Amino acid sequence: MIAVITGATKGIGKAIAERFAAAGFDLIITARTHSDLILLKKKLENDYLIDVNIRRADFSRKSDVLLFAEYVKKHTSSIDVLVNNVGQYYTGKLLETSADQLAEALQINLLAAHYLTSVLAPGMKARKKGHIFNIASILAKQYREDAASYTITKHALLAWNKLLFEEMRQHQVKVTAVIPGATYSDSWKGMNIDFSKLIQPEDIAESIYQCFNLSSHAVMVELMIETLNKNFE
C-alpha cells in the first residue's frame, strides 16, 4: 500500500509518515527542505524496509503543488492514503491583515490541498478505494481574533472537507478532517511551558491510523482531539 503525505518532515506530518511506515506502507512525501526529506527517507527505509519517494515542493506556489501531483502519478498508478498536512499559522487581526497575506494563507491552507486532491482523487474514484485526511485545526471550530487569516482558512478547509466527503462517498472513498488542538511542534520551543501537557504528534498519527483501519463502510468524518489543559486553548 502507498501513502502520500505533504509536509512530512516535521511535527504531525513526520509522525504520520512514521506511523504508516511502521505499518508497512510505501511512502511518497514532500516538504520544503530537500535535506530534511533525504534524512527522513534514509531513516524510514532503514527502520522499516519500505520504499520512500521524495520531492521537494513549496506549497505556497501552485506550480509546485501540481508538479508534486504529477510526480506522484509518475511513481504509482494508485494510492491508498492521501494526507493533506501542509499548513501555515498566521497571526494578526482581520483589518491588520493585508490582502496579499490572506491570499497566501488561502493558497497554503486550502488551495494547495484542493489542487493536489483534484489530481489524485480521480484515481481513487476509479478504484472505489482510498482515504483522504485533511489536517485542519481547532480554529476550524473556533474564532481567534489575533489569528484572523489562519482562522478563516481553517474554517474554509473544514467546509471544503465536508463537500469533498459528500462527493467521494458516492465512490466508496473515505474523507476525514483532522481537527487537533494545541499540538507540540518546533514552534513551541523556547517557551516556558510543560510540553508534556500538549497533544503529541504521535497522538494525532495514531488516531489517523486507527481511523484508516475502521471497517470498509465506516468513516470518521471529523476527528477532533483536544488537550485536557485549558491553558492551551
- Overall pLDDT score: 93
User: What global shape is seen?
Assistant: globular
Gap between N and C termini: 37 Å
Unreliable segments of 5+ consecutive residues: none
Q: Architecture in CATH?
A: 3-Layer(aba) Sandwich
Summarize, please.
The protein is α/β, with parallel strands linked by helices and 233 residues long. 45% of the residues lie in helices and 15% in strands.
What do these coordinates show?
This protein is 45% helix and 15% strand. It has 233 residues and is α/β, with parallel strands linked by helices. It has one domain (2-232): Rossmann fold. A seven-stranded parallel β-sheet has the order 3-2-1-4-5-6-7, sandwiched between helices. The longest helix is centred in the middle third of the chain and has 29 residues, at 99-127. The termini are far apart. The mean pLDDT is 93.
Fold topology:
Blueprint: E1 2-6, H1 11-22, E2 26-31, H2 34-48, E3 52-56, H3 62-75, E4 81-84, H4 99-127, E5 131-135, H5 148-169, E6 174-180, H6 201-212, E7 222-225
Parallel strand pairs: 1-2, 1-4, 2-3, 4-5, 5-6, 6-7
